[in-house]
Amino acid sequence: MATDARSIASLTISFGLVAIPVKLYSATVASERISFNLLHQKDGSRLKQQYVCAAEGKVVDRSEIVKGYEFAKDQYVMFTPAEIKALEEAGSPEIAIEEFVPLDSVDPVYFDKTYYLTPDKGGPKPYTLLTTALREAKRCAIGRWAARGREHIVVIRALESGLAMHQLHFQAEVRTIGSMGIEPSQVTDAELKLARQLIEAQTAKRFEPSSYVDEFRGRVEAAIQKKVEGKEISLSEAPAAAPSRNVIDLMEVLRQSIEARGAKATDDLKARKPPKRAAKSATARKSSRG
Q1: Secondary structure of 88-133 in the HEC alphabet?
Q2: What whole-number distance in Å separates Cα of residue 283 and Cα of residue 70?
Q3: What angle do CA 240, 241, 247 make, to 5 degrees?
Q4: Residue 119, pLDDT score
Q5: How far is CA 135 from CA 28, 38, 56, 129, 132, in A?
Q6: Which one, of 268, 247, 271, lies nearest residue 202 by Cα?
Q7: Count of C-beta atoms within a 10 Å radius of residue 152
Q8: Which whole number is the average pLDDT over 26-50?
Q9: Strand 140-147 to strand 51-52: parallel, antiparallel, or no bridges (unpaired)?
Q10: What pLDDT was estimated at residue 238?
Q11: Cα–Cα distance list, 265 to 48, 213, 259, 260 (Å)
Q12: What span, in angstroms and rounded, lies between the C-alpha atoms of 26 and 28?
């Protein structure tokens, strides 16, 4: 765990009579995201957010603000902070495991936030036991956790050296692909064969996150640095949008894609130099034959 990581909460994983004390950490680094503040263009001062009453056109103080639910067009029922508080789920330090399922049975569309769980005082042995058992059984744990006034469904899975917890969306919060109204289309065996060849040509052993760099972030950071140094940025530095492609002949497009991929693979192979030891061995064999 990075030295600058701070625990969000101290929790307990429970299943059966087993209780594992753990610490909760965010898996993502919010400070790495580039964000902009709203400023007044005239003098560069920060802008403050205010709430204006649509009926009176006046700024409303926060002490006068309540929450409302629109049950019909422009019709609301209002709730006081005390009423909202009474409806909220009581926070709990317990992650209650209810079942174990294959990880691939959980559709990634349900994944929301990701956290890391590390063993707390008195937890290393049962933590390691659960991690190892999940890994060997090729299962993940499904449980419930209440925080910030809401109950959440969570998935706990084993990583190489610890546990990750994924907060899930409830089913009612997720659209189904069937609701998108996709019209089925027919493909030929020949088209399918070429598509498979293209997939094989671009198949890797595993996903490597380090292979993908946030190019937008790089451009923004470079522009920020220029601004800090008092330099102007060129509006032509942004990459041009890719041209729109209308697929007229699917078979021909697939063939061209495979040929282009093959040419790239050949160029990559030529660019690689043989190891010095192998090159010397080849030279030695050639000399001995002479």
Answers
A1: CCCCCCEEEEEEEECHHHCCHHHEEEEEEEEECCCCHHHHHHHHHH
A2: 82
A3: 135
A4: 96
A5: 23, 47, 61, 10, 5
A6: 268
A7: 20
A8: 88
A9: unpaired
A10: 60
A11: 54, 21, 10, 9
A12: 6
d(CA 262, CA 266): 6
31 contacts 38 by C-beta, under 8 angstroms: no
Nearest to 220 by CA among 206, 238, 208, 207: 238
Q: Is 14 helix (H, G, I), strand (E, B) or coil?
A: strand
For 12, residues 6+ apart whose C-beta sits below 8 A from its C-beta are: 19, 20, 21, 22, 93, 94, 95
Amino acid at 25: Y
In a 3-state reduction of DSSP, which class is residue 22? strand
d(CA 246, CA 231): 41
Could you write out the three-class secondary structure of 218-235? Answer: HHHHHHHHHHHCCCCCCC
Taking a C-beta distance cutoff of 8 angstroms, is the pair 155, 99 a contact? no
* Least confident window among 67-71, 227-231, 283-287: 283-287
pLDDT tens, position by position, 108-119: 999 999 999 999
CA–CA separation, 75 and 82 (whole Å) = 21
Q: Catalogue all structural domains in the chain, each as residue range(s) with its CATH number.
A: 9-28+92-173 (2.40.290.10)
Confirm whether pTM is higher than 0.85.
no
| Phi, psi angles (nearest 5°) of residue 250 | -60, -40
